[in-house]
Amino acid sequence: NAGVTQTPKFQVLKTGQSMTLQCAQDMNHEYMSWYRQDPGMGLRLIHYSVGAGITDQGEVPNGYNVSRSTTEDFPLRLLSAAPSQTSVYFCASSQNRGSTGELFFGEGSRLTVL
Amino acid sequence: AQSVTQLGSHVSVSEGALVLLRCNYSSSVPPYLFWYVQYPNQGLQLLLKYTSAATLVKGINGFEAEFKKSETSFHLTKPSAHMSDAAEYFCAVSTYGAGGSQGNLIFGKGTKLSVKP
To answer: When comparing pLDDT for B49 and A75, which is higher?
Structure first.
């Protein structure tokens, strides 16, 4: 059971470039989310989805797009990368739409924007 | 709106000593509370969760936490620290039931635990 798989693990971009961080889960979870982790800031929610075709913004959505065409996949797109988007990105999924469900995290994608 | 405050960004203990990591929450409705652990270069994994059942919650690796409504606290403890406990620990509160973002967790800023031999 692979759980939550994120690719790539590392990426370096130049300012203005675009890219997509991939996230796939094989647990048939309804809920998926993207967080960014910055030193001293904890984890902040970027976007989330409660099912295929349904997405919504989190705390820090600016500069990012998401889509959810299937239950398994939840890609995060950076439209025009900025140095402020240098961070570690985590995808997480949960079985339940309610908050009693455990969040399962991927191993993270470390992004550097020059 | 819910929020979480973790007191102390770094905590250092000796091996065998008590571990106490502090978490206070703010919530206008009964909260769901979680502790997650992150080992270096890994994602987060659930240690334990409080979902309005018993106020003393036991988790993995000998950790436990007590929900105290009067103090709005959910501190994490372990009687005897091991070297393998060195990691970063995150407290989180759920927004479920508050309207709007159902199912989202709000995380604290984290506490890095160091264990000295």
So the answer is: A75
Q: Which two tokens stand for residue A21?
A: 């961080």
- Geometric angle at alpha carbon A109, from A104 and B1, rounded to 5°: 55
Min Cα separation B102/chain A (Å): 6
pLDDT, residue B97, reads: 53
pLDDT score, position B100 = 46
Closest CA to B91 of B65, B52, B60: B65
> Under 8 Å CB-to-CB from B116, ≥6 apart: which residues?
B12, B13, B14, B15
Maximum Cα–Cα distance for chain A, whole Å?
Answer: 40
pLDDT tier at A99, thresholds 50, 70, 90? low
**Radius of gyration over every alpha carbon of chain A, rounded to an integer in angstroms:** 13
The pLDDT value recorded for residue B99 is: 46
Strand, helix or coil for residue B69: helix
Assess A3–B contact: CB distance below 8 Å, yes or no: no
Q: Does B12 touch chain A (CB under 8 A)?
A: no
A42 touches chain B (CB under 8 A): yes
Report the pLDDT value the prediction gives residue B101, as an integer from 0 to 100: 46
The helix (run of H) or strand (run of E) holding residue B3 is strand B3-7
| Residue recorded with tokens 């506490």 | B111
Contact across the interface for A106 and B43, Cβ inside 8 Å = yes
